[in-house]
Design goal:
Blueprint: E1 15-16, E2 24-28, E3 31-35, H1 40-71, H2 75-84, H3 87-101, H4 103-127
Antiparallel strand pairs: 1-2, 2-3
Length: 131
């Protein structure tokens, strides 16, 4: 009988072994117990969760960057740029001025959006478990 070659991937998940009828084992209180291998849908769900986590991370960065960028602009500087800056600066300042004029609404919207995205990123493995 040949030697059994085992590699532990993580201490509590699966232990793939060669030369056995059952190829996966898991550690229980009473020792190693055979389990059935994970199906193909598990790896596709894992891939989907990783892609979703990356998208949520990008959205979180977007909300944080917009919060810092838009809230750092003060109204007086924007009004000066809208009236006397270069042509491109005037166009940009005129577009941002109405958005920045409602500062409380802008801040609340960006912070709530960032909080929702971060909460979804935290809970997404549980929310989309059966997806």
């Amino acid at each position: 009988m040949s030697a059994i070659e085992c590699k532990i991937k993580t201490p509590s998940i699966f232990l793939p072994c060669r030369n056995l009828k059952t190829s996966f084992f898991t550690l229980h209180r009473n020792g190693w117990a055979p389990v059935s291998p994970p199906d193909a849908s598990t790896s596709s769900r894992t891939s989907l969760n990783i892609v979703l986590a990356c998208c949520l991370l990008v959205l979180s960065g977007l909300f944080s960057g917009l919060t810092l960028g838009l809230m750092s602009l003060d109204m007086v500087s924007l009004e000066i740029l809208a009236e006397g800056g270069e042509e491109q600066e005037r166009e940009f300042a005129k577009k941002i001025l109405p958005v920045r004029a409602k500062g409380n609404l802008l801040l609340c919207t960006l912070l709530l959006g960032n909080t929702m995205v971060n909460g979804a990123n935290t809970l997404q493995p549980f929310l989309f478990k059966n997806f």
